[in-house]
Design brief:
two-stranded antiparallel sheet; 95 residues; alpha+beta; 5-stranded antiparallel sheet
Length: 95
């Protein structure tokens, strides 16, 4: 099956992400890509992690078809634009 996706390591700088996550307040959650706080009332996009954390996708493929689906996460708009520029179609095996 083909899915549009981006490899996790092309988007995420873990050191910066963890540093940014520490700044999250009570009404915020970290961006899945950069870790910067996103207010729960703010506009954001959702992105799905699969492959045991190896890939991100925005695809609406059924949960049971993506290998090692890890659910949906919030992403800030700046990081979402970065994601869309890197997104390409890849082949994944259904579970």
């Amino acid at each position: 099956m083909k899915v549009k996706a981006v490899r996790y390591d092309l988007l995420v700088d873990l050191e910066k992400k963890y540093e940014n996550e520490e700044r999250c307040g009570y009404d915020e959650e970290p961006c899945a890509i950069c870790g910067r706080p996103i207010k729960k009332s703010s506009k954001c996009e959702n992105i799905r992690m699969f492959g045991g954390g190896e890939y991100f996708t925005t695809s609406d493929v059924d949960d049971y078809k993506l290998p090692n689906d890890m659910g949906w996460y919030s992403v800030g708009l700046t990081c979402f634009r970065k994601y869309k520029k890197l997104e390409k179609e890849i082949e994944v095996e259904e579970e």
